[in-house]
Amino acid sequence: MRFLAFASVCVVLLVQNVLGQCDAVTVENTTVYKPFDYNYLIEADGLRNGPEYDQATLYYPKNNDNNLKTIVLAPGHTATQQSISAWAKYLASRGFICMTIGTNSLWDFTDKRADALLDGMETIRQENDRSNSPLYQRINTDKIAVGGWSMGGGGAQLAAKKDSRIKAILAIAPWLRSSRLSESDLNHNTPLLIISGQIDPTAPPLLHANLHYDYTPSSTSKLLFEIELGDHYTPLYPSTGRGDVGNIAYAWFKLFLDENKCYCDMLNSGSLDINNKSSKYEIALNCKTLTIGKTSKPNLSLNAYPVPATSEINVEFNSSKKTDYKIYNVFGQKLKNGIITAHEKINIESLPNGIYYLKVGQTTIRFIIE
């Protein structure tokens, strides 16, 4: 009896603690807030310009957060990164890093935009390691989302299928070639937020946004917010619906990037659509069973040869997924980094003879160059 009484008290205290944590997360303080001032970085400031995209602008909040989360956004067909800057500035004002990227060609299709977004993620990782960056060691490189407008939004969907490390998607009036679209194209488990326009003539919802939502697996957390009488350009502005559109995206990223489950019921109930701006609000989000955050990952079985190496090393490890790698010298300085798959070669011609350390995922081994 004493044990049962003690257990009952523990349960009550636990419930009270959880509820107490969510007391501050309300519709009112989600929609009425003091924005952060923000600044931005471009290549002239030292920001990397990746080979898969053309120029970038990184907006970041002026706050003291050393655990910043990031969203990378790509523009639509024939559009520049300026077209998505309203979203970037809004998200920075709400505490997130948001980087807009241009495309190598204004006519790049969705697959190229997917690659551009993945390359943008690498830029975020390198910015965190750039010692003279104002964001040095302040970015949580495990918490990066991608998104975009039109073909950029379609590219974000494809990027999530290519790289499971993406934590969330913001698809703004997304476009994918609907005549070739199938469920296998969107078979990923990355939480997906779609914002579309009801009368979009460029990406009609019946052929694009609605199909994106329907073809994404039912097991994937997803939300479709269709703006009443909105066209292809209306979703470009988070101020739409007196801020309802932006507030919903903010809550989505608080849930899946900040891992704050207090926003789950708010999104599930549609209570952030204060001004009834949606002509359609569909959601698949089970707050009771939702699991977010890191899961423990076993160390890789990692091997590198030949020993000693000369111009390149062959890397083998027991995973079918693309994985981060880094090469350090004996002083702990990072000399090379990138993403590799198992059974891939790394060029080391630029490194002088000596002892080095190769880190793939969470596993590190030593190798020698002669």
Low-confidence stretches: 1-19
Report Rg: 22 Å
In what order do the strands lie side by side in the largest sheet? Answer: 1-2-4-3-5-6-7-8-9
Helix content range of the residues, please?
A: 25-40%
**H-E order:** HHEEEHEHEHEEHEHHEEEEEEEE
- Note the total helix count: 8
Structural shape:
globular
Total beta strands: 16
Q: How does the helix and strand content classify structurally?
A: alpha/beta
Sketch the major β-sheet.
9 strands, mixed
Instruction: Average the pLDDT over all residues and give the rounded result.
Output: 89
Strand content: 25-35%
Distance between the termini: 71 Å
Secondary structure layout:
Elements: H1 2-22, H2 27-31, E1 38-41, E2 56-61, E3 68-74, H3 85-93, E4 97-101, H4 110-129, E5 139-149, H5 151-162, E6 169-172, E7 192-197, H6 209-215, E8 222-227, H7 244-256, H8 264-269, E9 278-284, E10 302-305, E11 312-317, E12 323-329, E13 334-340, E14 344-347, E15 354-360, E16 363-369
Parallel strand pairs: 3-4, 3-5, 5-6, 6-7, 7-8
Antiparallel strand pairs: 1-2, 2-4, 8-9, 10-11, 11-14, 12-13, 12-15, 15-16
How would you characterize this protein structure?
The chain is of the alpha/beta class. 25% of the residues lie in helices and 26% in strands. The protein has eight helices and 16 strands. The chain has a nine-stranded mixed beta sheet, sandwiched between helices. The chain has a four-stranded antiparallel beta sheet with strand order 13-12-15-16, with no helix packed on it. Helix 6 (209-215) links the parallel strand 7 (192-197) and strand 8 (222-227). Helix 4 packs across helix 5. The longest helix has 21 residues, at 2-22. The radius of gyration is 22 Å and the shape is globular. The termini are far apart. The model is unreliable at 1-19 (pLDDT under 50).
